[in-house]
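Researcher: I'd like a structural prediction for the single chain below. Treat it as a standalone chain; there are no partners to consider.
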Amino acid sequence: CAHTGSYRLLLPAASAGARQTVSGLAPGRYALWGWMITRGAEGEIRVGVPGGGEARATAAGEGWRRLELEFEVPAGGGEVVVSIAGTFGEQAGALVAANDLYLFRR
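Model: Treating it as a single chain, here is the predicted structure.
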């Protein structure tokens, strides 16, 4: 099931992951909000910022959890890389799912 709507990003194994580059960002402070649910795993949302900085948030346990990351895009930066991954245990049927991600300027 999705948090809202009909679709979600589902990572069913440790080898799964997703990443997207978001370009055209003006310098300044930003926030990324998202919802994550896990089973037998720990999920992570990470934002890589130009110059080597990063922000990250993790979730574990069943039930949708809202994650929030804050980060700064430096002058001349312009893009960030959003990544979603999981650390999986031995439990059969382990998964990480993410949904409803929102990126906005503070």
